[in-house]
Amino acid sequence: MAPTVTVVNHTYQVPDPLPTAEPGTLIAATDHGPDARLENARRWTVLYHSTNARGAHVAVSGTVLLPSGSASQGGWPVVSWAHGTTGVADGCAPSQSANLGSEAFAQELRALLRAGYAVTASDYPGLGTPGPHTYLVGADEGNAVADIVTAARQLVPGLAPVWFAVGHSQGGQAALFATHTERRTTGQRLGAAVAVAPASHLEAMLAGVKASHVPSELSFAFYSLVGLSATDPGGPATDLRSLLGPSAAAAASRVIADCVTHSSPVLKGVNTERMLPLKGDQLRRMGERMGAYGDPDRSAITVPTLVIQGGADQDVPPAWTDEVVARLRRLGSPSLVYRAYPGAGHDQVLGQSVCDLLAFLHSHGGTRPGACTPPPSSHG
Where does the Serine aminopeptidase S33 domain start and stop, copy by copy (predicted)? Predict the structure, then answer.
């Protein structure tokens, strides 16, 4: 029996030093019982073993949800949900939130639970656990999305052998990286992946935010600097004060310490060029590093994959996702489907696409969906 999960100041407590164990080995679990906010699914908070992009062993936190009622013959198929950006501070870990990070996410999870899927939801490395969150480091996220499925099988007997990677934004990128983790899940089959508005073009992020003159976009730039510093210790992003200067570094630190909001008062009216006083060569070198570890379109995907994009998305430009899909197809991704939803914003597309998502999962070994009507969705 795994010990219960303990948390101090929003950080889950993990063994120190962390013993070596196979990825997906359960470390601790707390049973919260049925959750009325999530279709009365039985909810656990878990800690489990994973590995990061450098091959180091890390502890990762997350959530496991089991639908109420009885599973169909063969057990509950599993959807490993990969969340969008919530922030980089430990208190932003979705497992610590009633709605797992946002109401748009909870709405998607409720639809999956109603359809008869068990859901695993990783927080990703460093989000809720010691150390910085490796924001947009694709291998870290993809490994964590796969390994929590293995951990859930130690907690919940009778899960079906098929699982699916489904994610939004940061999580859309994570779901695409999870397609390269098949060998991690022995005895389990990754049936398909769904990436909704996947993060991409990381090499252009810092320069794009600097030139955007949209202060709210600075949050993503600052989070990406945290990810860069976490995967490149001692590199240029490690010391924000040296990199950005005292004033911008102070603002960045305040943003980094908070969770995602639609409008951060710290950033109201600020000048994006002054907040990112980086020269062209710095932007290029840092962008190249981010693209190398985070762009999801640098190797072919052999798992059946559905990419979803809202036509009015202002956070992940539709043109970027068009290019990701085109590049993946050129690289030789034989089972890639692309669906766009004109007029849908970044979060809004989750609700608009959910019926198509459920139909796609069913066509690759998931549950048979009943009558489905897209629910009202959050705007943006």
Answer: 103-347
Q: Which residues contact 336 (CB under 8 A, 6 or more apart)?
A: 301, 305, 307, 325, 328, 329
The letter for the amino acid at 57 is H
Buried b (16+ CB within 10 A) or exposed e, 79-106: bbbbbbbbbbbbbbbbbbbeebbbebbb
Express each pLDDT in 244-268 by its tens digit: 999 999 999 999 999 986 567 889 8
Judgement on whether residues 51 and 190 belong to the same structural domain of the protein: yes
Q: Which residue range(s) make up the domain with 16?
A: 7-200+300-363
The pLDDT value given to residue 263: 61
- The answer to whether the pTM exceeds 0.90 is yes
Structural domains counted in the chain: 2
Domain containing residue 126: CATH number: 3.40.50.1820
Q: How far is Cα 174 from Cα 112, in angstroms, rounded to an integer?
A: 18
Q: Which amino acid is at 145?
A: V
Phi, psi of 87 (to 5 degrees): 130, -175
The 10 Å CB-count burial string (b at 16+, else e) for 44-67 is: bbbbbbbbbbeeebbbbbbbbbbb
Going by pLDDT thresholds of 50, 70 and 90, the confidence category of residue 41 is: very high
**One domain for residues 153 and 105:** yes
Judge whether residue 379 has pLDDT over 50: no
E-strand stretches of 53-203: 57-66, 76-82, 118-122, 159-168, 189-196
Q: What's the pLDDT score for residue 196?
A: 98
